[in-house]
Design brief:
- This protein has about 220 residues and is mainly alpha-helical.
- The protein has a domain of about 130 residues.
- Helices cover about 60% and strands about 0% of the residues.
- It has 7 helices and no strands.
- Helix 1 packs across helix 2, helix 2 runs antiparallel to helix 3 and helix 4 packs antiparallel against helix 5.
């Protein structure tokens, strides 16, 4: 992609604006927008040209060996544009190894294909390692859980406070103790008779007030 002197000036100002933001006049803004549109159009055109190039390369490859000259020339242009050779290209170049240009392109395409295969293998290996890493570390992660103290049992709800019982629970009455049979006081199996409350707690005598004490004396 080539820029004219005026486009380079606009591009330089746009880069300076990206580094040091500042207000721009309206005419400079319009120039930056026109340059952006031109770059987008050039990128779109480059994609179209690459598609045409690859289509011509496929047609010339099908027409081999009669189209060897055009095929080798198109293959050079495609490689310069970042094209990755297909297995069909390697097969075609091996059939044309008697041509010096075909032999050179075969060595170049084989190097590109080998680097591409290594990159795919490295990506697949790293993905497999990342996928199996959690499974390998799972036992180590679960080991501390075996010795971890058990969680305490949940506390029972307080029934003496409002809301202590569940909404659908009904309070149960405590079981009444069975009535005890009275033991006769003169039962010899129990030794001495049980004293009555009056005998155990005799009434206390009321103290005499000081005034009454003097009168009695």
């Amino acid at each position: 992609m080539a820029f004219s002197a005026d486009e380079l000036r606009v591009l330089r100002s746009a880069l300076a604006l990206a580094l040091h933001p500042a207000p721009l006049p309206a005419d400079e803004v319009r120039e930056c927008l026109r340059l952006a549109e031109s770059v987008d159009e050039a990128i779109h055109e480059a994609g179209r040209l690459r598609a045409f190039l690859l289509a011509d390369l496929a047609r010339y490859r099908v027409a081999l060996p009669g189209s060897a000259g055009g095929y080798l020339e198109l293959l050079q242009d495609a490689l310069a544009a970042g094209y990755r050779p297909l297995p069909d290209d390697l097969v075609s170049l091996r059939s044309l190894r008697s041509l010096p240009l075909a032999a050179a392109l075969l060595a170049r395409c084989q190097g590109i294909a080998e680097r591409s295969v290594r990159a795919r293998l490295a990506h697949a290996t790293s993905y497999a390692t990342a996928a199996t890493a959690p499974a390998a570390t799972a036992p180590a992660a679960s080991a501390p859980a075996a010795t971890a103290p058990a969680a305490p049992a949940p506390r029972t709800r307080l029934t003496a406070l409002p809301g202590g019982l569940a909404a659908d629970a009904k309070p149960s009455r405590p079981a009444e103790p069975a009535p005890r049979e009275p033991v006769p006081a003169d039962n010899p199996a129990h030794g001495r008779p049980v004293p009555t409350p009056a005998e155990a707690f005799p009434p206390r005598k009321r103290p005499t007030p000081p005034g009454e004490r003097r009168e009695a004396s």
